[in-house]
Amino acid sequence: MILLSLLLAATPPVMLEPNAGSANRLHPRRVTASSFLENGWNKHAQNYLPLYIADDDPATAWVEGAKGRGEGEAIEWWGPELSRAKTYRLFLRNGFQKSEKLFRANARPRKVKLEPLVQGETGPQTTGTALEMELKDVLGWQEVRLPVPNKVHGVRLTLVSTYPGTSYDDTCLSDFRVYVEGEDPYKPEAEAAAFEQVRAFALERKQAAARSGSAAKMEWAPRYEVEKLLTLERSYEEGEPPRGNTYAVGLFSTVPVKDSYKSALDRAKKVAELFDRASLDYEGQDSEARAKWTRVKPAQPKAQTTSARTALSAMESDGIVRIAGLLHLGDASFFEADASQAQMLASIEKLDKKEAQQTKACISKCEKRRAGTREDSYDCSCADECMGCDDPNLPASEKLKHQVTGGDFLLGSLARPTAFLRGKSELSGSRESWYAFRQTLVTYAGEKADVVLTNDHTDMMMEGTVALRIHVIDWGESNGKASPTTITSFLVSETRVQVLRYRPAPRA
C-alpha cells in the first residue's frame, strides 16, 4: 500500500567519501529522467545525460532540461529487483562538482523528494513512504537513508526546490550512489557487470567527444518519449492463440486491430512468420536459420549502442539498444564465422572431462575437511559447494554449449542482407542467477532496419510477463543522416497486450 504522507528528514551530513558500513552497493540497470539539457556543449561529450549520475565521476552530471531551474523535474534510478530489502542508503554529490567554479555557476538541488519504485504492469509505480530532504549546498558526498518496502526496484528523485546558480539556471546532480540494507542474497558479479556497462558508456562518450566528426549513417534523437496506444488485460483463455498456429504468429493473431497502428501490425505479423520458421529453438533442418542462413560475426559501432541507451531510456526492454549498431547497414559489417559446429563440440567434450576431474577433486577435499562434523551444520552438500551452493558458477563447457545453441545468422548477402538473427545466452536475475536465452531478429528494408523482434525464454516461463516484443521502425532524416522518427512496439503475452509508440521528445 502506498503511503501518501511525507517524512521530513534532517539535513544530511557531508563527507569526502561514502561510508556505507555493511550495506551492499547496487548499480543501475537503467537511469531515466523527465528531461536533460541539450545544447551545443552537450552534442558530443554528452555530459548531461541521466546515466552520468552512476559513473562515480564528478566531472559529469545529469542536468535537467526544463525552462527555469527545473523544479518538478525527476530522475529515476532502476536497479535489481529486491524482495527482502529494508533501507536504501543513498549518497549524493550535489550540483556540478567538476570544479568549485562550475558548482557555483549552475543551480543545485535544494529540497528533493525521494520515492521507492517498483516496475508495475503499466509502468513505474511508487511504493512505500516518500521522503523529503533538504540537501546542503556544499561540495562532497551527502547521505540520505530511505526506508523501503521489502519489494523494491528503484528510486525516483524529484526536484522540489533549488539553490540558484551565479551564471546558469540549469540544475545539476553529479553522482547518486545506492546501497541496500536487507536480506536479499548479494550478487557481486551481477553488480560488477552492471557497473561495467556504465563505465563503457562513459568511455564511449569521452571518445566521441575527442573525435572530430562521425561517419555514422544514422543518428538518434536525444530522447524519445512514449505514447500508449493500447493496454489490454485478459484471462489466459482469452489470450490463448488459436490451435494450428505457430508460436509468434499465434500470439500476434490475438492482437486487436486499430487504425492507429494497423500498418505497423501488418509488418510485425510478417516478421512473426519469419521468426517461427527461423527460430533457434529448433534444431538442425527444423530451423531455417540453422539450415539455410549464413553463420556470421557482426561488427557494430559502440557509439550507436551508447547513443541508443540514452535515447531509448523510456523503453523498459533493452532489446533494440543491444543491436543498435546493426540498424543501418552503412554502419554495420558482417563476416563469415570461422569456428565450425564440429570444432565447438570437440571443445565442449574436452572441457567436460577437465571439469569433471576438477569437481571430483573438489568434492574429495571438501569431504575430508568436513569429516567428523554434522552434515546439517553446512548450508549445502560438498557436491553443491563445489558448484557454488546458492550462487552457482556456470562451467566453461556449459557456456560453450550456450554458444552452440545460439549464434549469429544472416539471410542474404554479407553486404546487403534481408534479415539477421542472434541467439545468445546471458546471465540474468537479481536475486537468483541463471542463463537466459534471448533471440533477436532484425529485418531490413534496403539499408535500414524495418522491424526488430526479441524473445526471451525466461519471459516465456514467467506467467503474466511479456513473451514477445516486436518493434516496427519508421525512418526520417536528421542532420543529413537517417533517424528513427517513430518506433511502434508490440508487447504480447497470453494475458496482456500493450502497444506503445516512441517519438523524439520535443526540445524544451
TrEMBL record:
InterPro entries: NADase_transloc
Protein origin, superkingdom: Bacteria
Every NAD glycohydrolase translocation F5/8 type C domain range: 30-177
Entry keyword set: Signal
Key word Glycosyltransferase present: no
Annotated signal sequence range: 1-16
Record's keyword annotation contains Oxidoreductase: no
Protein name: NAD glycohydrolase translocation F5/8 type C domain-containing protein
